[in-house]
Write a structure and sequence with these properties.
Elements lengths: L3 E2 L2 H23 L4 E7 L3 H17 L2 E7 L5 H12 L6 E4 L9 H7 L11 H8 L8 H11 L9 E5 L6 H9 L8 E5 L6 H5 L4 E4 L17 E4 L3 E4 L7 E4 L4 H4 L5 E2 L6 H22 L4
This protein binds guanine.
Guanine binds next to strand 4 and helix 6.
């Protein structure tokens, strides 16, 4: 079997068009332009690129966006001060704190300080709690994007064995919570694997849908998956490549060439999950704007 490619770039474009329509509508009806504030602490080049891409996407759909930059040696107080100001700034309906933060900054403290109504990354404990209960306002962008990639390609996870490799707050945990819900686009049987999992391959071989969010190139090899599996590769790893101008290329967590011979569908890296994460951030920012106007989604 040769896998169908799940094209996240094309689907993200489609979703951005839908968001742009929503933005125009809210401007016309209410005179409000949805706004996203991005907080970027330090000078990690990858984070700077992510934030730039997120802002570019905002511009494209007609949203307002601004980046608030803090130095690499910023203190908790400085970051908190920035977040507190943005919480009460009416220009911004969503706030994104780009992660990871430098070591001296307490990530939990900062996330907890966000106004949950502006937490478009869905990381505040209030929003995590709502996701646990199956009534989320904001699902983190990566898992929300993966759900859309599955559904809009005709792969309803209902009844499927989904194996999630990785238990991060931003991908693994919310992915598992989202797909286990009694809800449309969910109803899966979910298993979560992590660094202490015994016999990982025995478990991944049971997967109808495998989500790899491990952070290591080629962590998922062909012998670890069954014929016909749907593979979602969340990894974005830089590997040295002297033939490239930049000196590196981006690869996922999955041995793409070998696994795509066995899988029925697979996401590429880049161009799979990455663009979907950004598209769903825009969806969440539009939702935050609507909620700020109506008090509920409408
Ligand atoms: N770092 C890597 N991915 C993400 C994301 O989706 N949101 C934020 N805030 N930081 C990230």
């Amino acid at each position: 079997m040769t896998a169908k490619i799940l094209d996240g770039k094309a689907l993200a474009e489609e979703i951005r068009l839908e968001v742009a329509t929503g933005v125009a509508e809210i401007q016309q009806k209410h005179g409000v332009t949805p706004g996203l504030a991005a907080v970027l602490v330090g000078d990690d080049p990858a984070s700077a690129i992510y934030v730039r891409n997120k802002r570019r996407a905002c511009d494209e759909v007609g949203m307002v966006s601004e980046t608030f930059e803090l130095p690499a040696d910023a203190t908790n107080e400085q970051v908190l001060d920035c977040v507190h100001k943005l919480n009460t700034d009416p220009r911004f309906h969503g706030i994104l704190v780009q992660l990871p933060l430098p070591d001296q900054v307490d990530e939990r403290l900062i996330i907890d300080a966000l106004d949950p109504a502006k937490d478009v990354d869905g990381l505040h404990p209030y929003n995590v709690g709502k996701l646990v209960q199956g009534r989320p306002d904001f699902v983190p962008g990566t898992p929300a994007g993966i759900q859309q990639l599955l559904l809009r390609n005709g792969h309803d996870p209902a009844g499927a064995n989904v194996v999630v490799c990785g238990r991060s707050e931003i991908v693994g945990k919310p992915m598992a919570l989202l797909l286990m819900q009694r809800a449309e686009g969910a109803n899966a049987t979910v298993t979560v694997c992590h660094t202490r999992t015994k016999n990982l391959a025995d478990i991944t071989q049971q997967a109808d849908i495998l989500v790899a969010a491990i952070g290591r190139p080629n962590a998922i090899t062909a012998d670890m998956v069954k014929e016909g599996v749907i593979v979602i590769d969340v990894g974005i790893n830089r590997v040295e490549d002297a033939s490239r101008k930049r000196g590196y290329r981006l690869v996922g967590d999955v041995d793409f060439d070998a696994v795509s011979e066995k899988a029925s569908a697979i996401t590429p890296v880049p161009g799979g999950v990455g663009p979907m994460t950004i598209a769903m951030l825009l969806v969440n920012t539009l939702t935050a704007t609507r909620l700020s106007i109506h008090g509920k989604e409408s």
